Amino acid sequence: MKRLVLLLAGLAVAATANAENWGQWRGPSFNGSTTEKDLPSEWSKTENIAWTADMPGPAASTPVVWGDRVYISTTDSAARSLLAVCIDRRSGKVLWQHKVAEGMNRDEKSNFASPSPVTDGTRVFFFYGSGQLAAFDSATGKQIWTRNIQKDHGDFAFQWTFSTSPVLYDGKLYLQVLQRNVPVGGRGFKDKPNESYLLALNPADGQQLWRVVRPSEAVAESLEAFNTPMPFDHNGRKELLIAGGDCLTGHDLATGKELWRWGTWNPNKIGHWRLVPSPVAGDGIILACAPKGDPIYAVKAGANGTLKQDDIAWMSEKQSKLSSDVPTPLFYDGDFFVLSDVRRGLSRVEPKTGKIKWSIDTPGRKKYEASPTGADGKIYLMNFAGEVTIVDPNKGEVLRTIPMGEEGDDLTRSSIVAAQGQLFIRTNKRLYCIGKKEPVVSAVTR
Predict the structure, then answer these.
(1) SS3 374
(2) Quick check: helix, strand or coil at residue 161?
(3) Which pairing describes strands 197-201 and 208-213: parallel, antiparallel, or unpaired?
(4) pLDDT at 65 over 60
(5) Cα separations (Å) of 205 from 10, 84, 172, 208, 343?
(6) What is the layout of strands, in order, in the sheet containing 330-332?
(7) What are the pLDDT digits (tens) for 14-23?
(8) In sequence order, which residues have a C-beta less than 8 Å from that of residue 382 and are 6 or more positions away?
(9) What is the pLDDT of residues 374-413, one digit of tens each?
(10) Taking the alpha carbons of 350, 355, 360, 361 in that order, is the dihedral positive or negative?
(11) In whole angstroms, what is the distance from residue 76 CA to residue 290 CA?
């Protein structure tokens, strides 16, 4: 029996030797990609499913995975509250669950559970569009600390429901609030300007390490950003990339000080250009997606101060498929993959030149707003109806489309996660773990 247990344990270790965790919204490299291999490529809602967990309400948050734990933010439609949930990756059993806040949404197009959690395997952090931020022990679920960003720094001045995912990097927890400078819908300061700002918190106790104001010359709704800051390491210089307010900036991780700035994609100061895609970097290039079907801009990494035109590597042509209003582009296999929700296409792009290697139409009638995932030589997409599309990144061919949503499903926006040899797909009503169901190896040695 002892030898059998050791053999099973050895097989389990071998099976996960190349497995990666997915601890943040855009994965281990902050670009939507992972080195995961041997992922499932064929399944249905009943075949090749390790387990399924019912969700108490819809949410756009992406699950995060660390070892044998899956963490997910969700709404509870019946109780109209916000939940933090931990699920056993091997069995699908809920290990712990906490109600973090009351309230569910402010408009019909989104809810407060759009931000994704983040974990380092020791602690897990949940943030919600209501401003509530809570830290839990990742194993026991014991709450470590909690605070509300709106109570600390004032009501969020956004026309729609605010969403940004927290980022854990280099020993700090980062959060951004890029908002209007005047009240909107009765929200925001009425006696002074609202400031857009970056926050760095101590993950251990939630104490504020620094708060830095991020100025912008944008106006009205164009000041609003619903994206996530992205850490970036270029030639040994670590920084935080921020896109919003009609410009792109890089910030020092230790102090929040602005290192460089490029702008603008909005020289005419159009007032309704809120920003949704996050910045993404690869091969010495940083991408910023202008909204509403406008171009993508590629900025050369490593600059300082106010950038000039020479610091722009390229920009896409107007009215081309190379545009994104909502999805954040993917960097995978040495190239960018740009998913256009407004032009209904997916394109593979050479980072330094902007050359389009291939471009295809996305299948189906529904929009694709979930950001693409790259893993195991495949690109994974999901549309509003919960239909998953798998694309060959080399040939630019659709390999298959698999319906995972329920009849009448809409506004499915969660990105697909690849971790620990499995795929995790969150629809409006369920969380699917795709792949082989792993046996639980007993520690008994008698």
Answers:
(1) strand
(2) coil
(3) antiparallel
(4) yes
(5) 38, 18, 11, 9, 45
(6) 330-332, 335-340, 345-349, 356-361
(7) 444 568 999 9
(8) 368, 370, 388, 389, 404, 412, 414, 415, 416, 425
(9) 999 999 999 999 999 999 999 999 999 999 999 888 999 9
(10) positive
(11) 34
Cβ distance 113 to 73 under 8 Å?
Answer: yes
Say whether pLDDT at 4 is over 80. no
> Whose structure tokens read 């830290």?
135
In sequence order, the 6+-apart residues with CB closer than 8 A to the CB of 318 are 294, 295
Q: How far apart are CA 190 and CA 275, in angstroms?
A: 24
pLDDT at residue 18 in the model: 64
Strands annotated E in 24-131 = 49-54, 64-66, 69-76, 81-88, 94-102, 118-119, 123-127
pLDDT of residue 437: 84
Picking from 237, 281, 226, 286, the residue whose alpha carbon sits closest to that of residue 261 is 286
Q: Quick one: tokens of 410?
A: 């809409």
Please state which of the ranges 6-15, 104-113, 168-177 shows the lowest mean pLDDT.
6-15
* Residue 85 confidence (pLDDT): 98
**Separation between Cα atoms, residue 328 and residue 337, nearest integer Å:** 9
Radius of gyration (Cα) for the chain, nearest Å? 21
| 372: DSSP letter | P
Going by C-alpha positions, the residue among 331, 321, 222 that lies closest to residue 271 is 222
Q: With 70 as the cut, is the pLDDT of residue 442 above it? A: no
Q: Are strands 305-306 and 258-262 parallel, antiparallel or unpaired?
A: parallel
Q: Would you tell me how many other CB atoms lie within 10 Å of the CB of residue 434? A: 25
Calculate the alpha carbon distances from 180 to 190, 204, 288 in Å.
12, 31, 20
Bridge partners, residue 167, by sequence: 174
Examine the pLDDT at 8 and tell me if it is beyond 50.
Answer: no
Long-range CB pairs of 251-257, under 8 A, 24+ apart, other chains included: 251/198, 251/212, 253/169, 253/170, 253/172, 253/200, 255/210, 255/212, 256/198, 256/200, 256/210, 256/211, 256/212, 257/212
Joined together, the tokens standing for residue 123 give 């602690």
CA–centroid distance for 166 within its chain: 9
Residues 90, 96, 97: CA angle, nearest 5 degrees: 125
